[in-house]
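$ ./design --mode recover --in tokens.txt
reading tokens...
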């Protein structure tokens, strides 16, 4: 089977169904279902794949520390991703089946990116900021390399400049000391000097330009001129370099986190609600990353919070955000994927709707 995955299947695959079309385009070459015949081994301990899988049809046998168990397409469990590791060491087909495999690190990066960006856009929209330019900007491949927490910090370092049509922002051959983002208006890109010059592109709202000279430390490779009155956002070289560096977030191992939990610290599950309901820490509050800013007002400034997700990426972003808002929080080192099978089962000991934060620091069971 080599046809691309039908779009009507995507809405039920968690967390793939949270990604917008622009992110799905990045992994479109991976969205090709794979057919399995009865008895085929998808992966085992000797052949870890580095992929995360979704079951699309048929029945699989999953080998876990508790023994073998079936996974049947169409069941609630089959809508969730499963990954090779200590908790699932071998998977084979019990009948003809079809699976989808996606690079695990790439999937988690895109999910973290999407949820962190959603929070940022919500914050700006709530403050009355028009965000069309930022949504377009975040589609730039450059931002796939930027830790989500840094984007918010970048916005505080941008210099806003209103410029007239005809203004030359970059000149080919000059040294680069900054890059620009186009908040409004349009610009044209020309390569070659003098009579040999040729227009090769037009830039619209959300475009980033000038960054290549900063990444390569080479002279400008094109001239950029405004063809409309425009508002541009300027980012200096030193701030651009800082943009690409991941913020340092203190992490805790499970033993340390459990000790703090016994002393009154609160677990926060920053995954999607559908992931939370499959299993969560005892009394853990559901706080999806993309809704965290809205829900944070229900938390208490004098309480310590312990965040977790699958890989640790979403929880690191959550802790960075909570710290900015004045809360004390730590992420679980390595996330759930870093736990042993025994520790995983002990931590995620509750299933179902679980617990919600309410005003005044109250916890309410939603089931």
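writing sequence...
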């Amino acid at each position: 089977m080599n046809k691309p995955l039908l779009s009507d299947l995507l809405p039920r695959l968690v967390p793939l169904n949270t990604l917008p079309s622009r992110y799905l385009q990045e992994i479109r070459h991976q969205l090709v279902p794979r057919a399995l015949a009865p008895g085929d081994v998808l992966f085992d301990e000797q052949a870890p794949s580095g992929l995360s899988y979704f079951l699309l049809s048929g029945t699989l046998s999953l080998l876990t520390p508790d023994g073998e168990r079936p996974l049947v397409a169409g069941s609630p469990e089959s809508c969730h991703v499963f990954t090779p590791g200590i908790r699932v060491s071998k998977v084979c087909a019990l009948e003809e089946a079809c699976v989808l495999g996606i690079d695990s690190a790439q999937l988690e990066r895109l999910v973290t990116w999407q949820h962190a960006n959603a929070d940022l856009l919500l914050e700006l929209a709530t403050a009355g900021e028009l965000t069309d330019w930022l949504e377009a900007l975040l589609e730039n491949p450059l931002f796939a390399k930027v830790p989500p927490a840094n984007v918010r910090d970048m916005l505080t370092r941008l210099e806003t400049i209103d410029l007239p049509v005809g203004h030359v922002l970059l000149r080919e051959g000059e040294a680069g000391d900054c890059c620009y983002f186009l908040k409004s208006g349009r610009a044209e890109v020309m390569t070659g000097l003098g009579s040999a010059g040729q227009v090769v592109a037009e830039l619209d709202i959300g475009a980033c330009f000038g960054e290549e000279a900063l990444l390569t430390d080479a002279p400008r490779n094109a001239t950029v001129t405004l063809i409309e009155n425009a508002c541009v956002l300027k980012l200096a070289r030193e701030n651009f370099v800082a943009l690409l560096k991941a913020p340092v977030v203190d992490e805790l191992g499970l033993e340390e986190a459990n000790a703090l939990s016994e002393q009154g610290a609160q677990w926060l599950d920053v995954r999607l609600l559908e992931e939370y309901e499959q299993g969560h820490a005892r009394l853990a509050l559901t706080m999806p990353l993309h809704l965290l800013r809205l829900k944070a007002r229900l938390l208490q400034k004098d309480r310590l919070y312990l965040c977790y997700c699958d890989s640790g990426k979403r929880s690191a972003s959550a802790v960075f955000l909570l710290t900015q808002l004045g809360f004390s929080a730590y992420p679980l080192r390595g996330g759930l994927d870093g736990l042993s099978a025994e520790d995983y089962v002990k931590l995620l000991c509750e299933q179902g709707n679980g617990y919600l934060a309410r005003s005044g620091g109250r916890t309410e069971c939603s089931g």
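exit 0
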